[in-house]
Design goal:
Three copies of one chain form a homotrimer. Chain A is an alpha/beta fold. The first copy, chain A, has 20 helices and eleven strands.
């Protein structure tokens, strides 16, 4: 791994980038949003399994690219969805050496992609692999990683400490008992793992299994949810429980950022329809829009930072969804409108500095057109870092270019890795820090800002903004 | 201020940029579109007041950023809207030193923003401030600027001459008596200040105070407006009046660039409904679309260049609008469609080279998709420079990148500063000239064009295109 | 022409770009999609005519820019549409020296445009012109080119060989008898010219002359088309005929990429309505959406690669269309949605690796938002190169930037020139190869990939991917 990687080749800019990066390279990692399983840390004996268990099977960033070139998910060991099971005729590869070989044979597909960059970094910096991954080296590297994974230094808690993670937040359903978080709290281990309250499964009336989720909500909150009032009460109960276990934020997914305030009567009518299985698509849209406003109201009350991730059309590929379930690399972005959709919420709560609402997007055309102007005005708004497909060198460069002049750096909130791939965390943060250093170095080299300001901005990008936005 | 600021750090490109910039650095400023108050120049005794009166209170680019970080507009001295008045319980800060200190304490928010760049330039090049603005230097700098503003060289006319402004166009309601422009004409002062005809308040049926504006139009034109025919007559009367006072252009804002031709009967019916307060939203949309076509027709007749600024959803924040009124940093862009919306107008008038229609946008995704292809075909079309949030270094770079290859440089029209902040004018033009020099230097350094062509293009960017497009 | 043209000025990046470019500069040109008339090669005595016949009159990239600055198409020799004829009062310039002078007088309009770049390249590298084209040199250069065109080395077949074209595919209506392709096959000339099946004129019910086209389809296929079943039969017949003459691909234009599967009964009802002239706009939209799915089905059967070019609103300018017909530089892009529109097709056929569906766009905002994520998942999908207005240096840079990280290089398909301007082909491929080398050099210089990988990617960009995607 080159010491100057990802910096502009211009010697003047590169020298400044190197200097700025050096200021933050050793700072701890703040991970306010992601999808790592808390069980990794709750269970001190947790083992990552084979290299394939760790690096291939659970990572849809990896297998979607292989799938796109015609490699069946079955041959990569991706398990069928529980509803289907092996009985449905799906034969899944179980030979992990064979899966690894398939992956290595096609590793060239990742050239110039963020997954390729992270993978190279993980191999070199976590596992100490010194050769390039390809067909010839595949089995040697497999052996090397397998040996490492068997060692105690490669237990999750040990890696957490080695990665210098200061805090890692998970994402948890509103109905989650947070068993692992409770165990962690009780364990005395000093690693900070915090839950995040994600109520999509109960507030989006068209979520798969919504009715079951409502029953689970009743059970876990102790509030028998039978109408809108008890629903709100149960949610407030759960938020308090999450907060007691360390949560500082909530997270919300919606197909669009549409918001609208329903009267309590309307909300109750729709909710009762839904309980009877009679809610329409329009009901679901309006109810979700209303609940986003309710969540903003509750955030003002309890201080939880609110995150909104709109614009992903989930499970676009029916065949893959039916065979393997959700989160298999088949979620596709759609054009996303913020100015009109968020107007109701922002008019009611956007002027209140007690609210922190962090907006994400999969539609980069909204950066300069809507998101930066909105964040550059409303006190409650902040822009999240480049999300998902844009968590990449070019994605970050476009974000810096299109967001910062209008929103201002201080209306953004640093980085989050948003990953379920625990070992990719250091690589992802490193890309952000290098991309940020390079961006600032460009401003300095062009005499747009001075080096002093750049140093302060660099620290803000690395840890300052994220701690502030998520109250960590 | 570094001599090479905003140029690429690559030594080859930078050397060419420096050479190109030097060719135009001393050329006069042509300001064909903006919002400077003509009273500044009509009244030879006009004083700018305090540094805060000049630089903070009237500039929504400045105070919207502070507001976004939770600083109330009241504490920045922004006056409540006349309808509300202090009586409505709004307590506005009047201590300008205190406001200045608040601003300086938060000046770091502008790092990497165009407002920060302009402000640094103004402090250094207009006021001769030699230290960086921050909490510690705030009061010293306040004293320094206040002393300067008291001197006769800092009267508006003196600065106009010092800034080397050749012509400055204001923006004036169709109902404006142009008193200041008349006074200027009579004064014998040689500075060229020209009005621009902006009829939004009377042609957009849903404009605030439309009915009152129509009465004002009747009064000022001497044409009793009671139907569509007299409305058109009154507008033609006003255009002639503006032209007689030096106007060479009109300006039009609309939420979308929708155009449609109504029959005279339809237009008259809608207009009469509006006079009775019965026009619907749909009526207003169609009438605005029709009036854009009428304005194009009149432009062919009287030769006034037509400007269209669509896509701003004005006063998105109800609380701010109710408390402080319009133009308070809360106008938000929306996605804007040009290809279909302008089709009626372009089919009727777009082939006529007597018409010059300049299009602006707040939706950069339209640059390469719609605006450049349209401008690269229709003789009547030109593209305006990057507007508002995009009047910035990166905004300009994206504009050059996304527009020029398809539209061609000669279907654009140079720069306009579009500002009400008079002292920011030189800084804004300087950013454009430097950004343009850097863009052209990049083309030369890549052997895309030769230096000879680049010199001619540079002159066109600085003054040639704008004089031609606005007939100045 | 500078040896290093279009490469980044940074010496490190430039040196790598030069090295990568050198690897592919001499490779043959693969031209899988374009609009060159096959008659050029079928008729061994074909002559290009005058410089204006070759370079101005047929090239809407050229004359649309002159038209945009008020130069009438008549004065450039553009012939009126056959329906109108000279009788309609259109006086067309016939003095080719005069037309050439007009063009040269305005050649400055092409500064910084791809057409300018290609033209410079053609003049220098094909015709050996050594001076710059302008008003003064115009007639000398005309003489020079005219003399060259009279020589046998400037016959189309000779140039085809000199250009080192390995294969060139034309685009041909479903009803085309492919007379020239048959003649070519019989001629024994070793140049590969292949047809491409483009059925828009018969599958888009609202295509101009649709009813006549259906009769032509009946006649040429020998299948009397009187209902949906015979229509499908006739299309399959024609596809087989095209394939027998060397076609490896089909091409489809549609205003949007909307897809939907109709029942056979519905399809038949709509088709019968259309035969009676009773199809509605909605019928046409649904039928086109259905036929795209049918074409995917047939491609799986016969192995023809499927291309989709949506998003062009054809003949936006009524006056130009009425006077001169289609393809006169007045086609305008519209915003284009892929995620939802293609869902039906992709769910039915997108998982089948036997299908290759190549998507193009005139809406760059879809690159990172929709096209790259879709191509990075569905096995059947590939992204076509930057199309039309984006076949340019900056267009390619944006494409590499916005597509490659998410889709991966290997889900794209190299370059196609998509041109009817035969002599511009080498220049266009050269721009692609240089832009590609520069992109990869940037990745190497930033230590994103290593030089080894870059060399393999360069070869893929130049010829590997295109041969694979089009089965050439």
């Amino acid at each position: 791994m080159n010491f100057d990687r990802f910096f502009d080749p211009d010697p003047a800019q590169r020298a400044i980038a190197r200097e700025l990066y050096a200021e933050v390279a050793a700072l701890p990692l703040i991970c306010p949003h992601g999808h790592v399983d808390p069980r990794l840390f709750a269970d001190p004996d947790y083992s990552f399994g084979s290299p394939v268990d760790l690096l291939i099977i659970p990572d849809h960033y990896v297998f979607r690219m292989l799938y796109s070139k015609g490699i069946p998910l079955e041959s990569l060991g991706v398990p069928p969805s529980p509803q289907k099971g092996e009985g449905a005729g799906v034969r899944v590869e179980t030979d992990h050496r064979k899966i690894w070989q398939t992956f290595a044979d096609h590793f060239y597909l990742f050239r110039g992609t963020p997954t390729g960059v992270w993978f190279d970094d993980e191999l070199a910096n976590i596992f100490g692999v010194e050769e390039k991954l390809n067909s010839a080296s595949a089995q040697r590297i497999y052996d090397h990683i397998a040996a490492k994974l068997a060692a105690p230094e490669f237990k999750p808690r040990a890696l957490f400490e080695r990665f210098n993670i200061e805090v890692l937040c998970t994402t948890d359903a509103a109905t989650d008992p947070l068993t692992h978080h409770q165990a962690l709290k009780a364990s005395g281990w000093r690693g900070q793992i915090r839950p995040t309250f994600r109520p999509d499964g109960v507030v989006n009336l068209d979520a798969p299994g919504w009715r079951t989720n409502i029953d689970a909500l009743s059970a876990i909150s102790g509030v028998a949810v039978h109408n809108y009032a008890t629903f709100i009460q149960a949610l407030e109960n759960r938020r308090a429980f999450f907060k007691a276990l360390g949560a500082t934020a909530t997270d919300h997914a919606a197909l669009t950022p549409f918001t609208e305030e329903l009267s309590t009567g309307e909300a109750d009518t729709i909710f009762r329809h839904a309980l009877r299985g009679q809610a329409t698509t329009d009901d679901a849209t309006r109810f979700t829009g209303h609940m986003l406003m309710e969540m903003a109201r509750m955030s003002i009350d309890d201080g939880l930072t609110m995150q909104l991730h709109p614009g992903s059309l989930r499970s676009h590929n029916d065949i893959i969804f039916e065979r393997f379930g959700a989160d298999k690399g088949a979620d596709m972005p759609i054009g996303t409108e913020y100015t009109r959709n968020l107007r109701h919420l922002l008019n009611k709560y956007g002027n209140d500095p007690r609210l922190t609402l962090i907006l994400f997007t999969l539609d980069e055309s909204a950066y300069s057109r809507e998101l930066a102007p909105l964040a550059g005005h409303y006190p409650a708004l902040r822009l999240g870092p480049p999300w998902w497909f844009f968590d990449s060198l070019n994605g970050m460069a476009r974000y810096f270019d299109q967001v910062m002049e209008t929103a201002g750096l201080y209306n953004t909130c640093g980085f989050n890795d948003d990953t379920r791939a625990f070992p990719s965390i250091p690589a992802r943060h490193d890309v952000w820090r290098r991309a940020g250093a390079n961006w600032l170095a460009g401003l300095v080299a062009r005499h747009f800002i001075d080096l002093n300001d750049a140093c302060e901005m660099m620290a803000a990008l690395a840890t300052g903004l994220v701690k502030d936005a998520y109250k960590l």
